[in-house]
Request: fold
Amino acid sequence: MDPWAGVDTSGWELPSADFPALPPTLSYPTPPPTRPYSGPPVSPAPPVSPAHQPGPRSPAPPAPPAPPAPSGPYRPAVSPTPPGYPPPGYPPPAAHPPVQPAPPPISPAGRPPAPVEPPAPASGPGAMKARPVPPPPGWQAPPGYVPVAVRKRRRWPWMLLLTLACCCGCPAYYGMPMASQYPVRAALPAQVADLQLRDDARSTQTARQLEAQMRQTHWLAEETFAGIYTTQAGKRVTVFGGTGFRLTPSADADAEIERLTADYALGEPEVVESRVRGRHERCAVGRSDGVGVVVCTSVDHGSITSAVFTGLSVDDSARLLGTLREQIVSTK
Reply:
Protein backbone atom coordinates (compact mmCIF):
# COMPACT_ATOMS: atom_id res chain seq x y z
CA MET A 1 0.00 0.00 0.00
CA ASP A 2 1.42 3.37 -1.01
CA PRO A 3 1.20 5.86 1.88
CA TRP A 4 1.45 8.77 -0.56
CA ALA A 5 -1.51 7.72 -2.74
CA GLY A 6 -3.85 10.63 -3.40
CA VAL A 7 -1.46 13.22 -1.99
CA ASP A 8 -0.47 16.26 -4.04
CA THR A 9 3.30 16.11 -4.31
CA SER A 10 3.65 18.65 -7.12
CA GLY A 11 5.40 21.12 -4.84
CA TRP A 12 8.27 18.69 -4.27
CA GLU A 13 9.23 18.28 -7.92
CA LEU A 14 12.41 20.16 -8.76
CA PRO A 15 13.66 20.78 -12.26
CA SER A 16 16.70 18.70 -12.99
CA ALA A 17 19.92 20.47 -13.85
CA ASP A 18 22.49 18.81 -16.01
CA PHE A 19 25.91 19.78 -14.77
CA PRO A 20 29.03 19.28 -16.89
CA ALA A 21 31.39 16.50 -16.02
CA LEU A 22 34.09 17.32 -13.49
CA PRO A 23 37.63 17.63 -14.71
CA PRO A 24 39.96 14.76 -13.90
CA THR A 25 41.62 14.93 -10.48
CA LEU A 26 45.24 15.94 -10.65
CA SER A 27 47.86 14.44 -8.38
CA TYR A 28 48.67 16.67 -5.49
CA PRO A 29 52.36 17.59 -5.27
CA THR A 30 54.16 16.63 -2.08
CA PRO A 31 54.93 19.75 -0.03
CA PRO A 32 58.41 20.26 1.41
CA PRO A 33 58.86 18.90 4.97
CA THR A 34 59.48 22.35 6.43
CA ARG A 35 56.43 24.00 4.89
CA PRO A 36 53.23 23.76 6.99
CA TYR A 37 50.24 22.09 5.40
CA SER A 38 47.75 24.71 4.17
CA GLY A 39 45.20 22.47 2.46
CA PRO A 40 44.65 21.57 -1.20
CA PRO A 41 44.28 24.43 -3.72
CA VAL A 42 40.76 25.38 -4.59
CA SER A 43 40.07 25.32 -8.31
CA PRO A 44 37.52 27.85 -9.67
CA ALA A 45 34.08 26.48 -10.46
CA PRO A 46 33.31 26.16 -14.17
CA PRO A 47 30.89 28.74 -15.55
CA VAL A 48 27.28 27.70 -15.88
CA SER A 49 25.71 28.29 -19.26
CA PRO A 50 22.37 30.16 -19.37
CA ALA A 51 20.73 27.15 -21.01
CA HIS A 52 21.33 25.06 -17.90
CA GLN A 53 20.10 27.57 -15.30
CA PRO A 54 17.12 26.27 -13.26
CA GLY A 55 13.71 27.71 -13.94
CA PRO A 56 11.43 29.37 -11.42
CA ARG A 57 10.11 27.13 -8.65
CA SER A 58 6.46 26.73 -7.81
CA PRO A 59 5.35 28.51 -4.66
CA ALA A 60 5.42 26.41 -1.48
CA PRO A 61 2.15 25.69 0.34
CA PRO A 62 1.39 27.93 3.29
CA ALA A 63 2.86 26.74 6.63
CA PRO A 64 0.35 25.68 9.30
CA PRO A 65 -0.22 28.13 12.14
CA ALA A 66 2.16 27.79 15.08
CA PRO A 67 0.61 26.24 18.23
CA PRO A 68 -0.18 28.63 21.07
CA ALA A 69 2.59 29.14 23.59
CA PRO A 70 1.96 27.12 26.77
CA SER A 71 1.28 28.97 29.95
CA GLY A 72 3.53 28.62 32.94
CA PRO A 73 7.05 29.49 34.05
CA TYR A 74 8.62 27.05 31.64
CA ARG A 75 8.27 27.45 27.87
CA PRO A 76 10.04 24.84 25.80
CA ALA A 77 11.76 25.94 22.60
CA VAL A 78 9.77 25.17 19.45
CA SER A 79 11.81 24.09 16.50
CA PRO A 80 10.79 25.71 13.20
CA THR A 81 8.60 23.57 10.93
CA PRO A 82 10.16 22.87 7.57
CA PRO A 83 8.21 24.17 4.59
CA GLY A 84 5.77 21.73 3.10
CA TYR A 85 5.44 19.63 6.29
CA PRO A 86 3.14 18.01 7.09
CA PRO A 87 1.78 16.88 3.73
CA PRO A 88 -1.81 17.73 2.89
CA GLY A 89 -4.29 15.34 4.50
CA TYR A 90 -2.16 14.63 7.62
CA PRO A 91 -3.13 16.13 11.00
CA PRO A 92 -0.68 18.64 12.49
CA PRO A 93 1.68 17.31 15.17
CA ALA A 94 0.46 17.58 18.74
CA ALA A 95 2.10 20.20 20.90
CA HIS A 96 4.27 18.94 23.77
CA PRO A 97 2.78 19.53 27.22
CA PRO A 98 4.63 22.01 29.38
CA VAL A 99 7.22 20.51 31.73
CA GLN A 100 6.67 21.49 35.33
CA PRO A 101 9.59 21.64 37.75
CA ALA A 102 9.80 18.68 40.19
CA PRO A 103 8.78 19.49 43.79
CA PRO A 104 11.51 19.25 46.45
CA PRO A 105 11.71 15.85 48.25
CA ILE A 106 9.99 15.57 51.59
CA SER A 107 11.70 13.48 54.25
CA PRO A 108 9.72 11.30 56.71
CA ALA A 109 8.39 12.81 59.94
CA GLY A 110 8.44 16.28 58.36
CA ARG A 111 12.18 16.67 58.77
CA PRO A 112 14.12 18.74 56.28
CA PRO A 113 16.65 16.92 54.14
CA ALA A 114 20.02 16.25 55.74
CA PRO A 115 22.65 18.85 54.89
CA VAL A 116 25.37 17.85 52.52
CA GLU A 117 28.62 17.32 54.40
CA PRO A 118 31.76 18.88 52.97
CA PRO A 119 34.40 16.52 51.67
CA ALA A 120 36.75 15.13 54.31
CA PRO A 121 40.19 16.75 54.37
CA ALA A 122 43.22 14.85 53.22
CA SER A 123 44.77 12.60 55.85
CA GLY A 124 48.33 13.14 56.91
CA PRO A 125 50.51 14.56 59.67
CA GLY A 126 49.60 18.14 58.74
CA ALA A 127 45.91 17.58 58.06
CA MET A 128 43.51 19.28 60.45
CA LYS A 129 40.71 17.39 62.11
CA ALA A 130 37.33 18.07 60.45
CA ARG A 131 34.83 19.80 62.69
CA PRO A 132 31.36 18.26 63.05
CA VAL A 133 28.65 19.92 60.94
CA PRO A 134 26.03 21.59 63.20
CA PRO A 135 22.33 20.90 62.51
CA PRO A 136 20.41 23.49 60.46
CA PRO A 137 18.52 26.21 62.35
CA GLY A 138 15.10 25.15 63.53
CA TRP A 139 15.89 21.43 63.42
CA GLN A 140 14.00 19.28 65.90
CA ALA A 141 14.73 15.68 66.84
CA PRO A 142 12.03 13.14 65.91
CA PRO A 143 9.92 11.59 68.70
CA GLY A 144 11.77 8.86 70.59
CA TYR A 145 15.25 10.06 69.59
CA VAL A 146 17.78 9.77 72.43
CA PRO A 147 21.20 11.34 71.89
CA VAL A 148 24.15 9.09 72.69
CA ALA A 149 27.27 10.70 74.10
CA VAL A 150 30.42 9.80 72.22
CA ARG A 151 33.04 8.46 74.61
CA LYS A 152 36.43 9.95 74.02
CA ARG A 153 39.18 7.44 73.68
CA ARG A 154 41.88 7.90 76.25
CA ARG A 155 45.33 7.88 74.79
CA TRP A 156 47.94 6.53 77.17
CA PRO A 157 51.61 7.21 76.61
CA TRP A 158 52.43 3.57 75.96
CA MET A 159 56.00 4.30 75.03
CA LEU A 160 56.52 6.12 78.33
CA LEU A 161 55.00 3.24 80.30
CA LEU A 162 57.15 0.72 78.44
CA THR A 163 60.25 2.78 79.13
CA LEU A 164 59.41 3.02 82.82
CA ALA A 165 58.76 -0.72 82.98
CA CYS A 166 62.12 -1.50 81.37
CA CYS A 167 64.02 1.04 83.46
CA CYS A 168 62.37 0.14 86.77
CA GLY A 169 61.35 -3.49 86.25
CA CYS A 170 64.76 -4.87 85.33
CA PRO A 171 66.61 -3.28 88.27
CA ALA A 172 63.84 -4.42 90.62
CA TYR A 173 64.01 -8.00 89.30
CA TYR A 174 67.77 -8.27 89.75
CA GLY A 175 67.97 -6.01 92.79
CA MET A 176 65.40 -7.78 94.92
CA PRO A 177 67.67 -10.75 95.80
CA MET A 178 70.49 -8.38 96.70
CA ALA A 179 68.23 -6.35 99.01
CA SER A 180 66.89 -9.48 100.76
CA GLN A 181 70.26 -11.26 101.14
CA TYR A 182 72.47 -8.36 102.26
CA PRO A 183 73.45 -7.25 104.86
CA VAL A 184 73.49 -10.28 107.18
CA ARG A 185 75.20 -11.43 110.38
CA ALA A 186 76.62 -14.86 111.36
CA ALA A 187 76.56 -16.70 114.70
CA LEU A 188 77.11 -20.42 115.46
CA PRO A 189 74.25 -21.94 117.50
CA ALA A 190 75.02 -24.58 120.13
CA GLN A 191 72.67 -27.14 118.54
CA VAL A 192 71.20 -27.60 115.07
CA ALA A 193 68.70 -30.47 114.76
CA ASP A 194 70.62 -33.48 116.20
CA LEU A 195 74.04 -31.82 115.81
CA GLN A 196 75.97 -30.55 118.86
CA LEU A 197 78.68 -27.89 118.66
CA ARG A 198 81.95 -29.22 120.10
CA ASP A 199 83.97 -26.85 122.28
CA ASP A 200 86.97 -28.99 123.20
CA ALA A 201 90.52 -27.72 122.66
CA ARG A 202 91.21 -29.76 119.52
CA SER A 203 87.91 -28.78 117.87
CA THR A 204 88.41 -25.13 118.84
CA GLN A 205 91.93 -25.09 117.34
CA THR A 206 90.71 -26.66 114.10
CA ALA A 207 87.89 -24.11 113.90
CA ARG A 208 90.35 -21.22 114.34
CA GLN A 209 92.56 -22.53 111.54
CA LEU A 210 89.58 -22.79 109.18
CA GLU A 211 88.47 -19.27 110.11
CA ALA A 212 91.95 -17.90 109.39
CA GLN A 213 91.98 -19.57 105.98
CA MET A 214 88.59 -17.99 105.22
CA ARG A 215 89.88 -14.56 106.21
CA GLN A 216 92.98 -15.00 104.07
CA THR A 217 91.03 -16.18 101.02
CA HIS A 218 88.06 -13.80 101.31
CA TRP A 219 89.81 -10.67 102.58
CA LEU A 220 86.74 -8.51 101.82
CA ALA A 221 84.55 -10.57 104.16
CA GLU A 222 82.88 -8.62 106.96
CA GLU A 223 82.61 -11.58 109.38
CA THR A 224 84.05 -15.12 109.37
CA PHE A 225 82.95 -18.20 111.31
CA ALA A 226 83.96 -21.89 111.74
CA GLY A 227 82.79 -24.77 113.95
CA ILE A 228 82.64 -28.56 114.29
CA TYR A 229 79.35 -30.37 114.95
CA THR A 230 78.91 -34.08 115.80
CA THR A 231 76.01 -36.45 116.41
CA GLN A 232 75.61 -39.26 118.91
CA ALA A 233 75.92 -41.73 116.02
CA GLY A 234 79.46 -40.48 115.31
CA LYS A 235 78.73 -38.35 112.26
CA ARG A 236 80.84 -35.22 111.94
CA VAL A 237 80.09 -31.92 110.20
CA THR A 238 82.70 -29.16 109.82
CA VAL A 239 81.14 -25.83 108.80
CA PHE A 240 82.90 -22.52 107.93
CA GLY A 241 82.17 -19.36 105.95
CA GLY A 242 81.84 -15.58 106.04
CA THR A 243 79.54 -12.62 105.33
CA GLY A 244 79.87 -9.71 102.92
CA PHE A 245 78.40 -8.42 99.65
CA ARG A 246 78.99 -10.60 96.59
CA LEU A 247 78.06 -9.47 93.10
CA THR A 248 78.56 -12.86 91.34
CA PRO A 249 77.61 -15.67 93.73
CA SER A 250 77.64 -18.34 91.00
CA ALA A 251 81.29 -17.68 90.12
CA ASP A 252 82.19 -17.48 93.82
CA ALA A 253 80.64 -20.93 94.43
CA ASP A 254 82.74 -22.46 91.64
CA ALA A 255 85.86 -20.75 92.99
CA GLU A 256 85.23 -22.08 96.54
CA ILE A 257 84.87 -25.69 95.33
CA GLU A 258 88.05 -25.31 93.30
CA ARG A 259 89.90 -23.99 96.37
CA LEU A 260 88.81 -26.99 98.48
CA THR A 261 89.63 -29.57 95.80
CA ALA A 262 93.29 -29.88 96.77
CA ASP A 263 92.56 -30.23 100.54
CA TYR A 264 89.89 -32.96 100.16
CA ALA A 265 90.77 -34.56 96.78
CA LEU A 266 87.37 -33.65 95.36
CA GLY A 267 85.99 -35.06 92.15
CA GLU A 268 83.72 -33.43 89.58
CA PRO A 269 81.41 -30.90 91.31
CA GLU A 270 77.64 -31.14 90.96
CA VAL A 271 75.20 -28.23 90.72
CA VAL A 272 72.48 -28.43 93.38
CA GLU A 273 69.21 -26.55 92.96
CA SER A 274 68.67 -24.25 95.94
CA ARG A 275 65.14 -23.06 94.92
CA VAL A 276 66.12 -19.58 96.10
CA ARG A 277 66.75 -16.90 93.47
CA GLY A 278 70.29 -15.57 93.82
CA ARG A 279 71.62 -18.55 95.82
CA HIS A 280 73.94 -21.07 94.16
CA GLU A 281 75.10 -24.41 95.61
CA ARG A 282 77.79 -26.91 94.58
CA CYS A 283 78.68 -30.36 96.00
CA ALA A 284 81.58 -32.77 95.34
CA VAL A 285 82.74 -36.13 96.73
CA GLY A 286 86.29 -36.49 98.16
CA ARG A 287 88.37 -38.05 100.97
CA SER A 288 89.88 -36.74 104.24
CA ASP A 289 92.32 -38.87 106.33
CA GLY A 290 91.23 -41.94 104.36
CA VAL A 291 87.53 -41.37 105.07
CA GLY A 292 84.99 -40.52 102.35
CA VAL A 293 83.51 -37.06 102.68
CA VAL A 294 81.08 -34.79 100.82
CA VAL A 295 82.00 -31.11 100.52
CA CYS A 296 79.18 -28.60 99.75
CA THR A 297 79.12 -24.81 99.49
CA SER A 298 76.23 -22.33 99.34
CA VAL A 299 76.80 -18.74 98.14
CA ASP A 300 74.37 -15.85 97.75
CA HIS A 301 74.72 -12.07 97.55
CA GLY A 302 75.36 -11.70 101.31
CA SER A 303 77.26 -14.75 102.57
CA ILE A 304 79.17 -17.94 101.78
CA THR A 305 78.74 -21.16 103.81
CA SER A 306 80.73 -24.38 103.26
CA ALA A 307 80.66 -27.70 105.11
CA VAL A 308 82.39 -31.10 105.11
CA PHE A 309 80.10 -34.09 105.85
CA THR A 310 80.99 -37.68 106.76
CA GLY A 311 78.66 -40.66 106.47
CA LEU A 312 76.06 -38.79 104.31
CA SER A 313 75.06 -38.84 100.65
CA VAL A 314 75.25 -35.85 98.36
CA ASP A 315 71.51 -35.10 98.60
CA ASP A 316 71.46 -35.45 102.40
CA SER A 317 74.58 -33.29 102.68
CA ALA A 318 73.04 -30.52 100.54
CA ARG A 319 69.81 -30.65 102.57
CA LEU A 320 71.68 -30.47 105.89
CA LEU A 321 73.83 -27.58 104.64
CA GLY A 322 70.64 -25.60 103.96
CA THR A 323 69.46 -26.25 107.50
CA LEU A 324 72.81 -25.16 108.97
CA ARG A 325 72.86 -22.01 106.88
CA GLU A 326 69.36 -20.96 107.99
CA GLN A 327 70.43 -21.29 111.63
CA ILE A 328 73.83 -19.58 111.31
CA VAL A 329 73.17 -16.70 108.89
CA SER A 330 70.41 -14.18 109.69
CA THR A 331 69.37 -10.86 108.20
CA LYS A 332 70.33 -7.67 110.04
Remarks:
- The mean pLDDT is 77.
- Helices lie at 158-181, 201-217, 249-264, 314-328.
- Strands lie at 184-186, 191-192, 195-197, 223-230, 236-243, 270-272, 280-288, 291-299, 303-310, 329-331.
